[in-house]
Amino acid sequence: MFRQALRQVSRQATSATRRTYATEAASSGALKLSLALPHQTLYTENEVEQVNVPSINGDLGILANHIPIVEQLRPGLLEIISKGGQTEQYFVSGGIAAVQPGNKLTISAIEAFKPEQFDLEAVKSLIADAQKRAASSDEVVAAEANIELEVLEALQGVAK
Amino acid sequence: MFRLGVNQIARTSGARNYATLREIEGRLKSIKNIEKITKTMKIVASTRLTRAQRAMTSSRVFNQSDKEFMENADPAKPEGAKSLLVVVSSDKGLCGSIHTQVAKAARRKVEELNGNVDIVALGDKVKAQLIRTHSEKLKLAFSGVGKEAPNFNEVALIVDEIQKLGKYENIEILYNRFVSAVSFDPAAFSVYAADAIEKAPGLSKYELEGDSVAETLSELSFANSLLSAMAEAYASETSARRNAMDNASKSAGDMINSYSILYNRTRQAVITNELVDIITGASSLE
What we know:
The structure holds two protein chains of two kinds. Chain A has helices at 2-17, 120-134, 139-158, and strands at 19-20, 31-37, 40-55, 58-62, 69-73, 76-82, 87-92, 95-100, 104-109, 112-113. By secondary structure, chain A is an alpha+beta fold. Chain A has two domains: 24-115, F0F1 ATP synthase delta/epsilon subunit, N-terminal (ATP Synthase, domain 1, Sandwich); 118-158. In chain A, α2 (120-134) runs antiparallel to α3. Chain A is elongated and about 55 Å long. The model of chain A is unreliable at 5-17 (pLDDT under 50). In chain B, strands 3-2-1-4-5 form a five-stranded mixed sheet, sandwiched between helices. In chain B, α4 (152-163) packs across α6. The radius of gyration of chain B is 29 Å and the shape is elongated. Classes of the chains: A alpha+beta, B alpha/beta. The A-B interface holds A 11, 14-15, 18-24, 34, 36-41, 44, 56-57, 67-72, 95-96, 98, 100-101, 104, 106-108, 110 and B 55, 57-59, 61-62, 64-66, 68-69, 72, 149, 151-152, 155, 203-213, 216-217, 220, 224, 227. Chain A: It holds the Pfam family ATPD_C_fung.
């Protein structure tokens, strides 16, 4: 947990030096969201009010007329607030979110599920399992387990 | 000597009359069995086709965001650098010209790039075709892919394996694009290396944070494009197999028709011959 926070801080420190600004002005209109998984399409250019995106640089709230950006996602909760004000939540494991010129937000996630679809007990047992492997002397196994832990710990906070 | 020879001929021709009847019967049976098999394969392909098409549509949408970004950023293709061709196909035949088409497209691409390429083959069929002409360029081949619609996990593993070959400035993925249920055509996805993305003229349209965005984008775009290519290739293959099996069943039906006519004619001829024999025998006794 601490390590993750540290990493995030160091990442932010480097990013501060390398920030490029967009030259393209954003156009007007409602925000159109496309949320796609490799095997399923959840949203196709549906008009929404706001989308909260978990990025590796911190959480982002994206409204209409956002400047074009490209952000890498971290495991976390994706919140979609529709025009009517209802909130849809999805847990995403990672991917890329891009605001395209023309007020389009495209999110490509590898997996996305609603928080209520997760079983907290299963998550806990998986965490215990991954922690065991993270202590392994094999570097590859430990690295894989650490990535798993990162996802699972984020999931633990989300699952009900 | 001569008489003996004549005797033998007469015997064989006489015997062949009956044998032909049995032979035709046997052939008719085997064609009927083949028809059953091709019909079943057609039904299997038809049911798979709807699933394959669904997988293809969602992978197209998944790839869309990436494509849009690349269109806006518009990275330049590096000149003169070594390219990598990833040729997407599968292990199984009986689906028309699908593997030949993509192999041909790969050969054309190699010509176009003056042979300065390495090739990765996905699927045994295309590997067998490319190894004949470009065995020294073929670096890696995967088998057991393309049996069903691809999932991201499988694709990520393949991408990892391909990236062990080293860095390529230019990666092209060749596949059969699904046009409609009756047609497909070979197409290509370009994957840009991280450097090319960083130098892209249109990149300033976007706001980027962090160092590794270009690299992440390049890797994800590779995986994305490969997933899309495999989904399209699978859909085209399934539809090509459906059509091939449809044609095969039709031809088998035609053959069954002509063979049953031949069978009936031969049967009647045999009966007539026997009757003639009996009647001549009976009349000679009178």
